[in-house]
Design brief:
Layout (H helix, E strand, L loop, with lengths): L1 H14 L8 H7 L5 E6 L3 H10 L6 E7 L3 H11 L6 E2 L15 E4 L6 H10 L3 E4 L7 H13 L4 E3 L7 H12 L5 E9 L12 H4 L3 H17 L5 E7 L13 E7 L5 E7 L4 E8 L2 E5 L10 E3 L2 E2 L7 H14 L8 H20 L3 E2 L1
Helix pairs in contact: 5-6, 6-11, 7-9
The protein binds nicotinamide-adenine-dinucleotide.
Organism: Arcicella aquatica
Family: Belongs to the Gfo/Idh/MocA family.
Keywords: Oxidoreductase, Signal
């Protein structure tokens, strides 16, 4: 039964936007099997407008619990998603989740500096963990999160949703199959004009940094998947025009460069000053250009062979299906803590390079 359902779900995920959409309920009726229960921790923008709606379309997991510090939100979500009182927690009583068999997976969607604490507490409660990017605000925290999940024998997955969607998979494939030869150059940049000046994103204690932690991490991750290589050194520069808004510990605009073992080089910008979102990959015999390259979609791109005609999918649905499939079948997920840790090590090196003005080996 399991295999049949899994095979069906693969096909379903691959074609869901080109054929009339089957509802998750119809799939469940055809292939009854327990869905993993997911609890969202932190009911802000991303949980509200992306993850919760996605969990209404997933076939192997569903929203069964919430963790929030705001009682009014609990009331709204309880009604909207039919969540029983016994599956509603706050940040203080969260650890009691250990005694709740409805909840298999805890999805941490809090400000960056809270990821570490809630991942450790979820692991201690014996729950699998999905944690948003950036996985932590330091390498040390990231390593502790990986160790805690290993010790508790639970999976840790980072919410790198792009790894589950077709355009990104094609960029990865080109690095591997070398249709256009070796990668020689990458330019990857992501920024947006931050308008909410009260946001936790501008508080270094909660964010751990500026746009690099928030969206620059996508450009960093893109250089790694576009080359299929790990950088060997970084250089970086920051520009701050509004120090009254961007306090110490929060960069405003950051430029950085990386060298790769093959000789490929990359150049990047991340900023809270302007909207930009692109990926350019130069190969020996061609190139790829995507813009937008990291949004929820639709993503758009072309290569030397023409327009990239790929399925437009709901990233968060495929992400959670992929992670929960790994949990159900007891196999490694494709965005583990180690993937997040690699980015954290590079971010620390980039911040160090920006501060010292020197090339930093990694
Ligand atoms: P948000 O500000 O909209 O939500 C944060 C939530 O945390 C709110 O519900 C807030 O009430 C709660 N919270 C608890 N303690 C808090 C505190 N001390 N200060 C501030 N808020 C507190 O933020 P968001 O945009 O939903 O981002 C949450 C996480 O999700 C971040 O780590 C972010 O990087 C990540 N994210 C990922 C994606 C993606 O595409 N993968 C997109 C957006 C955000």
């Amino acid at each position: 039964m399991k295999n049949t359902r899994r095979d069906f779900l693969k096909t379903f995920a691959a074609t869901s936007l080109t054929v009339p959409m089957l509802s998750a309920l119809q799939v469940e009726a055809a292939f009854p099997e327990k869905k993993l229960g997911v609890a969202l921790v932190g009911l802000g923008y991303y949980a509200t407008y992306q993850l919760a709606p996605a969990l209404e379309k997933t076939t192997n997991c569903r929203l069964v619990g919430i963790v929030t510090g705001t009682p009014e939100k609990a009331e709204t979500w309880k009604k909207k998603y039919n969540i029983p009182d016994k599956n509603i927690y706050n940040y203080q009583n969260f650890d009691q989740i250990a005694n709740n068999p409805d909840i298999d997976v805890v999805y941490v969607v809090l400000p960056n500096s809270m990821h570490h604490e809630f991942t450790l507490r979820a692991a201690k409660a014996g729950k699998h963990v999905i944690c948003e990017k950036p996985m932590a605000v330091s390498v040390k925290e990231a390593e502790e999160m990986i160790a805690a999940c290993k010790a508790a024998n639970v999976q840790l997955a980072i919410g790198y949703r792009l790894h589950y969607e077709p355009f990104t998979n094609e960029v990865m494939r080109l690095a591997k199959d070398k249709d256009f030869g070796k990668v020689t150059f990458v330019e990857a940049s992501f920024g947006f004009p931050l308008r909410d000046l009260k946001a936790w994103r501008l508080n270094p204690k909660l964010s751990g940094g500026g746009p690099m932690m928030d969206v620059g991490i996508y450009a960093l991750n893109a250089a790694r998947y576009a080359t299929g290589e790990e950088p060997i050194s970084v250089t970086a520069q920051t520009v701050k025009t509004r120090p009254d808004i961007y306090l110490p510990g929060i960069e405003e605009t950051l430029f950085w460069q990386m060298k790769f073992p093959s000789g490929a080089v990359s150049n990047h910008t991340t900023t809270y000053n302007s909207g930009l979102q692109r990926l350019y990959v130069g190969y020996e015999n061609g190139n790829l250009e995507m813009s937008p390259a990291y949004d929820y979609g639709p993503l758009k791109g072309k290569t030397s062979k023409g327009e990239m005609k790929l399925l437009i999918v709901y990233h968060q649905v495929l992400e959670m299906e992929g992670i929960c499939d790994a949990i159900i079948n007891n196999k490694p997920n494709i965005t583990p803590g180690e993937e997040g840790l690699r980015d954290m090590k590079l971010i620390e090196a980039i911040f160090k390079a920006a501060k010292t003005g020197k090339e930093v080996k990694v």
